[in-house]
Amino acid sequence: MSSSDQGLTALATPPRCIADFCLVPIGTPTASVSQEVAQVQRLLKKSGLKYSMHSAGTTVEGSWDDVMRVIGQCHAMLHERGVVRIQSDIRVGTRTDKKQGFKDKVEAVEKLLKDNE
Amino acid sequence: MSSSDQGLTALATPPRCIADFCLVPIGTPTASVSQEVAQVQRLLKKSGLKYSMHSAGTTVEGSWDDVMRVIGQCHAMLHERGVVRIQSDIRVGTRTDKKQGFKDKVEAVEKLLKDNE
Amino acid sequence: MSSSDQGLTALATPPRCIADFCLVPIGTPTASVSQEVAQVQRLLKKSGLKYSMHSAGTTVEGSWDDVMRVIGQCHAMLHERGVVRIQSDIRVGTRTDKKQGFKDKVEAVEKLLKDNE
Amino acid sequence: MSSSDQGLTALATPPRCIADFCLVPIGTPTASVSQEVAQVQRLLKKSGLKYSMHSAGTTVEGSWDDVMRVIGQCHAMLHERGVVRIQSDIRVGTRTDKKQGFKDKVEAVEKLLKDNE
Fold it and tell me: Which N-terminal residues, if any, form the signal peptide (chains A, B, C, D) (predicted)?
């Protein structure tokens, strides 16, 4: 293996990311998913990461590894509680030009909307 | 064409849906997307549909056709303003068991979290 | 309403798009979704649109309205067959700089990979 | 912290998952993303994980941690090459009822389509 190969394999994941995930249990007896979503919120609270629930998912911010681990733990927790299949959609963004939390993103847009009223 | 084929082709799209979309312009000079997101919010306001912006996208509810048309119009509007390529991620849900708006979904989870505190 | 407002509301959706969708039935008795995915493939075949199934979804190309209508019809068809709740994730792209089909995208990448071998 | 809290925090992520991701660079000079996608394919090849590219993304299978790390490394690699902002959409599925690779999913649907012809 060349040193450039080793470089890629050892490449560190991003120190910061904002991820928004929407988790769907499959093959559950009812069409309601609110029980599962509530359990996910409890796990996120314990994680210590900054997060925010909205009607179409939950936004989390932190290092790439921390954020992805906690989403994986949500899957694992629901499997433990008997859900045999889970599908999540994750939108994840990383940037190197500035540190931006998920609240800053909404504020930037709201400022623009106000300025042009 | 058999009558069953005609049935499928003429099938009406769902009368209600909740969609959450995250639109990303590609090949723009800057890494900021807040200008584009603000323009999307203005177009949504004019559409008359119920919508709500959050840090990872915008949630809209209405008939399938109305919701998908307005998201398509967001693409068309940004193309008109010079963005040559746009990618959106849309999470869309439909259900026949009950009428549920996007605010009801959050309230259902919050109620569960409160009950179990 | 000003004439510019009317312009936005009447804005045509894009004449071409490539969409990739992954449909998930919720509250079905089993964790298998292959029956539903097969029914979706049959409906797509009848639509006359160009499409291609892969393990994580189905890619369709056509006008924005045609593509979104057929995905909505997939939801409607499965609701008719008794699925009470359906969630889809749709990745949709539009561009004005060139006409590119979904096969062209893969070929462009494969060419780059070959050139640099 | 109660022992049940500790249990949640230490929860292992799923041993297997199938993820499909679509990575989009933001703020790049051109609307083409094929260079970036080609670099992602090279990194995946070196990872040793099973993967498959299609026109709307790349499917990878492996343990949750391995799969998420390699996607994070794709972001990190493109940042190193000067892309300041990257957005990915990841569809990820886990199941405990059977071991299913991404090729098996397509075959299950194709079998159904054949049986009913």
Answer: none
Is-contact B20 B57, C-beta < 8 A?
Answer: yes
CB atoms within 10 A of CB B7: 12
Residues of D in contact with C22 (CB under 8 A): 20, 91
C84: which 2 tokens?
């009470």
Q: Give residue C8's pLDDT.
A: 56
Shortest Cα distance from B23 to chain A (angstroms)?
A: 11
Tokens linked to A46? 């314990």
- Higher pLDDT among residues B8 and B43, named by residue: B43
Tokens 């199941």, residue? D95
Subunits next to B (3 or more Cβ pairs <8 Å) are: A, C, D
At B36-88, the pLDDT tens digits run 999 999 999 999 999 999 999 999 999 999 999 999 999 999 999 999 999 99
Minimal-distance CA residue of chain A relative to D90: A90
- Which B residues, 84 through 103, put their C-beta within 8 Å of a C-beta on chain A? 89, 91, 95, 97, 102-103
- Separation CA B71–CA C14 (nearest Å): 10
Which residue's structure tokens are 């075959």? D107
Tell me which residue of C13, C64, C72 sits closest to B64, measured CA to CA: C72
A17 interface with D at CB cutoff 8 Å: yes
Return phi, psi of residue D2, to 5°. Answer: -75, 165
Contact C27 A24 (CB under 8 A): no
Summarised one tens digit per residue, pLDDT across range A86-110 is 999 999 999 999 888 988 999 999 9
- Per-residue tokens: C63: 């006008």
User: What is the CATH architecture of A13-115?
Assistant: 2-Layer Sandwich (3.30)
Lookup result for tokens 């890629």: A8
Check CB contact under 8 Å for C46 and B5: yes
The total of other beta-carbon atoms located within 10 Å of residue A103's CB is 13
What is the ipTM score, two decimals? 0.91
Domain ranges in chain B are 13-115
Q: Does D56 touch chain C (CB under 8 A)?
A: yes
pLDDT tens, position by position, C6-63: 455 689 999 999 999 999 999 988 889 999 999 999 999 999 999 999 999 999 999 9
pLDDT of residue C117: 64
Alpha-carbon gap, residue B24 to C38, rounded angstroms: 31
The answer to whether residue A41 neighbours chain D at the CB level (below 8 Å) is no
Residue A44 in this model has a pLDDT that exceeds 90: yes
From chain D, the residues in CB contact with A45 under 8 A are none
